[in-house]
Write a structure and sequence with these properties.
single chain, 123 residues, alpha+beta, SH3 type barrels, 2 domains, 5-stranded antiparallel β-sheet, 37% helix, rod-shaped
Length: 123
């Protein structure tokens, strides 16, 4: 984990008496790959974040939008509360769902969680 914390390199000192070697001894070394490794770490972190969180969520939203657009009268659905029923009517953003014989409720289309295969709900 040394790439997270840049290491400081100590300057070497010599006991030479000339001015040229004293100037050379006073220089310090820069940390090796400090800025580049940090940017590389941030880039890799963003890619992992994108592929594990952002991309799957947008894919689920797209599938849900397609499913809600394809819902028609007669489809068997599951509502957000776990109630299963058959769609009897669809208006712009409201759907009428029959959950038992003679019992019909109105819900928002966005409350539909899943479409079931035909014949799942037996009367």
């Amino acid at each position: 984990m040394s790439f997270l914390i840049p290491t400081a390199l100590a300057a070497t000192t010599t006991t030479a008496t000339t001015a040229a070697t004293a100037d050379a001894a006073a220089t310090t070394h820069a940390p090796a790959g400090g800025n580049f490794s940090f940017l590389l770490f941030i880039g890799v972190f963003f890619l992992v974040f994108y592929f594990f969180l952002i991309r799957p969520q947008s894919k689920r939203q797209k599938e849900m939008k397609q499913m809600l657009a394809a819902v028609t009268t007669g489809d068997e659905v599951v509502i957000a509360g776990g109630i299963m029923g058959v769609i009897t009517g669809i208006h712009e953003s409201i759907a009428s769902v029959e959950i038992a014989k003679g019992v019909e409720i109105k819900i928002q289309k966005t409350a539909i969680v899943a479409c079931l295969p035909k014949g799942t709900i037996k009367n």
